[in-house]
Structure formats: C-alpha cells, structure tokens
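Data follows
____________
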Amino acid sequence: MNYAYVLTGVLIMALVTYVVRMLPLAVFRKKITNQFIQSFLAYVPYAVLSAMTFPAILSSTSSGWSAAAGLLVAIVLAYKDKGLLIVALGATAAVFVVEQGMALAGLPL
C-alpha cells in the first residue's frame, strides 16, 4: 500500500471539504434577510440527503421486493413519528424477513 498516495488523497479531500464549507462564510458577510432564500436554504440539506440516499435504498439489497418492503416500513414508521433508530431497525428487519422468505420459497433474489 502506498501510504503517501493515501495520505495525499485524504488531505486533498479534507481541503476540498473545508473550502466548500468556508466559501459561503467568506462570500456572504452580512445576514441573509430575504425570506425566500432563507426558506430555500433551510430545505437544501433535506433535499440533498434525499437525492443521495433514495437511489441507494432501492439498489442496496439483493431484490427490488425487499428494497420496496424496507422503504415502505421506513415510511410508515417515520410517519408515525418513531425515532431514527426504530425506523432504521424496522426497515432492516423488513428487508431481512423478505429476503429470507424469498430464499425459503426458492424465489430468485
């Protein structure tokens, strides 16, 4: 393993992350008072997180059926105001049960 190569990669990633986080602070010196921009910026983290995780949810299991079951359970538990741990465990359990059921039934995964 080339440690210099790995360390250089980590340092470059750290620098890029730092610049991306510090750039808005350096560019926008005064407080943003526009209500539209404030509300837009309030929802950006949720939109970005959704855009990054939703495709992974549907492609991270062995079967589309188990992914759909996990997603459905997660939506129902989140709708019922359960905590993040309960939602994650419930979705994981649903995926496990569906995949095990498909394997026992001899269905292709």
